Amino acid sequence: MTETPAALREHHHADVSGGWLRPAVFGAMDGLVTNIALIAGVGGGGVSPRTIVLTGTAGLVAGAISMALGEYTSVRSANEQIAAEVAKERRELERHPEAEARELADMWVARGLPEHLAIQVAEAVRRHPEQALRMHVQEELGVNPDEQPNPWAAALSSFLCFSVGALVPLLPYLFGATSLALALAVGGLGLFVAGAIVSRFTNRRWWSGGLRQLLLGAAAAVATYLIGALIGVQGGLG
Description:
- GO terms for molecular function: manganese ion transmembrane transporter activity.
- Helix 2 crosses helix 5, helix 2 packs antiparallel against helix 6 and helix 8 packs antiparallel against helix 9.
- The chain is built from nine helices and no strands.
- It is mainly α.
- The chain has one domain.
- It starts with 20 loop residues before the first helix and ends with a helix.
């Protein structure tokens, strides 16, 4: 059976420009690690299960809002910066079209294209202002002005995925359990599953991606547990 070349298939690459995958992954992982570490810290201090639930819920709400606002501001600011650079490039193309065409040709020559061919292509592009603008922005800034991430999509995906991730280690307490070890185990399982799912987008082995996230989360939980236990002991002595 012959395989269809990737270049002939309509969609052979994942969409890396939509602005939702990075904040979704970051939000889910951050939600898991943040609340696992938070629960481990206060649990290590010897507080009651009710206090752990209150602390974890507050961490979920505050973290989800913070992540959403941060993602929106970050993506919006980046888009505005790109828009300003695109406007600057548009003005240069209007004022100095010959110099800009030569600049474009020089960049292609530096990449190995014959000089006469680079000049011909740059001159052909110059006759179409919008295409010329897009080409210059891509070559000089390394971005496509028509494919910028949506700040609202980034904020929403970050908010939802952080909330889901942060909820996982709280589930045993919400269902009536009182064991810190069980909550941390459920959180660890969530980290492993999340890492395995992310590996689908990166061609990483699922068990390797899951194990990496589990180890990172475990390191954070151990650190905060020890700090919580130390402060709890000191507080008891006081």
